[in-house]
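User: structure tokens for this one?
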Amino acid sequence: MNAYIDTSALAKCYLREERSFDVLAWADGVSPLAIGGIALVEIRCLLARRRRAGQIDATLEKRALAEFDLDLAAGNWIVCPDWSGLYTTARQLIELLPELPLRSLDAVHLAYARHWGCRVFATADRVQAEAAQTLGMPTLSFF
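Assistant:
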């Protein structure tokens, strides 16, 4: 896989916010782009959370989800398969970075990217970017 995009950066492809156009421009030039299976759940949760918070309305929520599903079906995102050591690897990454407040699902994204040999890790999360850089992963930050 050429590059891995976590959910914080992936969301910028469907919701216009700061750095959205930067993510879109980068994503258009990189193929294939990998996502972890957890992103399928996270993107759905993110859209619902933003609607409940009043940041987007139900129409935009449905449109963004439909666009994501179309991109997924078209192969614009390659879903990295899970493997038996996914959560063990994520746990080990948290242990490798004891000073960083790395959240559980962020560690899972990093585990996917490392396991599947992605050459670039894209994120809009500062802690995750720092973790990826500390792990020696070339990182693109969109925050």
